[in-house]
Design a protein that fits this description.
The chain is α/β, with parallel strands linked by helices. Among the domains are: 3-173, Acetylglutamate kinase-like (Carbamate kinase, 3-Layer(aba) Sandwich); 263-337, 2-Layer Sandwich (Alpha-Beta Plaits). It has helices spanning 16-30, 45-56, 62-86, 118-125, 152-162, 196-204, 212-221, 276-286, 315-328, 355-366, 390-400; strands at 3-8, 34-39, 91-94, 101-103, 112-115, 129-133, 136-138, 144-146, 167-172, 193-195, 224-229, 237-240, 255-259, 263-271, 294-296, 303-310, 333-337, 340-346, 373-376, 380-386. The strands form five sheets. Strands 3-6-2-1-9-11-12-10 form an eight-stranded mixed beta sheet, sandwiched between helices. A four-stranded antiparallel beta sheet has the order 13-18-20-19, sandwiched between helices. A four-stranded antiparallel beta sheet has the order 15-16-14-17, with helices on one face. It contains eleven helices and 20 strands. It binds aspartic acid and magnesium ion. The site of aspartic acid has 12 residues, from loops.
């Protein structure tokens, strides 16, 4: 018999009515397959629990945070099991630890080390739908852990691998992975098939439909992932290793992503000598500030300017640190700006297709958009532009690669 894992995110289970709707979808799937369901906490529950913790403590211990946060998913799982039973489908709910999910001891950012899914398999064999609380597991000592924000996607794909499911379906509030953010660009289309690699690049470039860790696990174990909507019947996006059977017909560009949580820092007049970059980026790494695009200018008279991007949400911390660093490396000063954005073109078809670069720059030039920084890999090209021009840039690139007609 086919076996599938279905994951329903916070929006899909936000109310009793939505839980009943999910129960109907699960019931239909269970008519022809063994089904494991992984659920998130209802609506904004996780945020509310975090706020609650901070109302009693300025620095809540992370072990206690995990006990608290895991409760969100533990509410959803039995409620869905009850709704399923009420709809005439036999079901049982399990916590992450009961489902055999063992993790590292890193509270709030735990990693799954192993899954022993015997209980899940026994319940499936007994003819039940198994509803598992996502986002959580337990250490060897049976301390409860959570997997980091958005961790239910990771729970779902890991469980799919452990129970040898045919595929993992991620149900969310959009119809799939789009060629661009549909809130920004109504003409964006659902991408029918995308490779793990392209999905990871899109996620890194700002697309937030599925957690990248889940995609990494899918890629490592060859688990097919399908992203689709709880609220419509669209077949959604399939993530797998080969996007198109016909290699010659590959789409050059799969999608356009954008990110506005980005700021640019420039260190001016930095002495051009060995070790300087290490003194700038070492302290940022120690503070876990993710530096993205780095540009160093050609040096003049022994000094150079170094620019790089960081998340805008980390800019304040980065600035505090760079005050000291700028003095230490004897830079003549530094400046920071947050009115920028990142726009990225992603696709495995970019490999060995230099004309794509020209197409990108021409499209932006024709729209009158200035490119401040550029970075690229084999399968993406990212441009830093004025934040006010994001929509125009995404629209121009989307049109240049004819993504509205895929
Ligand atoms: N409830 C958790 C969060 O909001 C996990 C999840 O939804 O995936 O981050
Ligand atoms: Mg959530």
């Amino acid at each position: 018999m086919t076996r599938v894992v279905q994951k329903y995110g916070g929006t899909s289970v936000a109310s009793p009515a939505r839980l009943r709707r999910v129960a109907r979808r699960v019931r239909d799937a269970a008519a022809g397959a063994q089904v494991v369901v992984v659920v998130s906490a209802m609506g904004e529950t996780t945020d509310e629990l975090i706020a609650l913790a901070h109302s009693v403590s300025t620095d809540p211990p992370s072990r206690e945070m995990d006990m608290l946060l895991s409760s969100g998913e533990i509410i959803t799982a039995p409620l869905l099991a009850m709704a399923l039973e009420a709809a005439g489908t036999r079901a049982v709910s399990l916590t992450g630890p009961q489902a055999g999910i063992r993790t590292s001891r890193a509270h709030r950012t735990a990693r799954i080390v192993d899954i022993v899914p015997q209980r899940v398999l026994d319940e499936l064999d007994a003819g039940k739908v198994v509803v598992v609380a996502g986002f959580q597991g337990a250490t060897e000592e049976l301390d409860i852990t959570t997997l980091g924000r958005g961790g239910s996607d990771t729970s779902a794909v890991a469980l799919a691998v452990a129970v040898r499911a045919q595929r993992c379906e991620i149900f969310t509030d959009v119809s799939g992975v789009h060629t661009a953010d549909p809130r920004l660009l109504p003409e964006a289309r659902v991408i029918p098939v995308i490779t793990y690699e392209e999905m990871l690049e899109l996620a890194a470039a700002g697309a937030r439909v599925i957690h990248p860790r889940a995609v990494e696990i899918g890629e490592a174990y060859g688990m097919e992932i399908r992203v689709r909507s709880t609220f419509d019947e669209h077949p959604g996006t399939t993530i797998r290793s080969v996007a198109n059977a016909n290699m010659e017909e590959r789409q050059k560009v799969r999608g356009i992503a954008h990110e506005t949580d980005v700021a640019k820092v420039t260190l001016l007049g930095v002495p051009d000598s060995p070790g300087v970059a290490a003194s700038i980026f070492g302290p940022l790494a120690d503070e876990h500030i993710a530096v993205d695009i780095v540009v160093q200018n050609v040096s003049h008279a022994g000094t150079t300017d170094v620019s790089f991007t960081v998340p805008e949400s980390d800019l304040r911390r980065a600035q505090q640190m760079l005050d000291g660093v700028a003095k230490q490396v004897r830079a003549s000063g530094f400046s920071a700006t947050a009115d920028i954005a990142k726009v990225s073109v992603v696709g495995t078809g970019l490999r060995g297709t230099p004309s794509v670069f020209a197409q990108i720059f021409r499209a932006l030039a024709e729209a009158g958009i200035n490119i401040q920084m550029i970075s690229s890999s084999e399968i993406h090209v990212t441009c830093i532009i004025d934040r006010a021009r994001v929509r125009d840039a995404v629209r121009a690139l989307h049109a240049a690669f004819e993504l509205e007609s895929i």
